[in-house]
Design a protein that fits this description.
Layout lengths: L7 H4 E4 L4 E4 L4 E4 L2 H16 L7 E9 L2 E12 L7 H4 E5 L15
Antiparallel strand pairs: 1-2, 2-3, 4-5, 5-6
Length: 110
C-alpha cells in the first residue's frame, strides 16, 4: 500500500468552544475529557510518526474476549487491512489510553 503523507491538522483537533475532540478522518467526535486528549495525541503519533494509514485505524471498537463481546470498547485499534476492520481477525495493535498522571498500577491496584 503506498504511503500517503497526512498532516496532523487533517487527523483531528480539539474544539474548545464546543468542548469536543474532532477526528476528521473518521468523521467522529467525542466529549473533551483528559483521556480523549491523550487518545488524539496517540492517534496522531500512530499516523504521523509511525506511518500507519488513517484507513487502518478506528476508535471505540467492540472487542471479544473468549465467547463474549465486552461492553467496554478498545480505545484505538490499528488493523492489518485498510478495508477489513474485523477486530477478531485483523487487529494488529490494540491501544488502551489513560489520562495523564493516573495513579492506578498495572497490577490492578487502586
Amino acid at each position: 500500500m503506498p504511503k500517503v503523507r497526512i498532516e496532523e491538522k487533517d487527523i483531528g483537533y480539539i474544539d474548545p468552544d464546543r468542548r469536543k475532540v474532532i477526528y476528521l478522518f473518521l468523521k467522529k467526535e467525542f466529549a473533551l475529557k483528559p483521556e480523549e486528549e491523550i487518545r488524539l495525541i496517540m492517534v496522531k503519533k500512530l499516523i504521523v510518526e509511525y506511518g500507519y494509514s488513517p484507513l487502518q485505524l478506528d476508535i471505540e471498537v467492540s472487542v471479544k474476549a473468549g465467547q463474549k463481546t465486552l461492553p467496554k470498547k478498545a480505545d484505538i485499534i490499528v488493523f492489518n487491512s485498510p478495508t477489513n476492520h474485523d477486530p477478531a481477525s485483523q487487529a494488529y495493535i490494540i491501544v488502551e489510553v489513560k489520562k495523564r498522571e493516573r495513579t492506578q498500577s498495572l497490577r490492578g491496584g487502586k
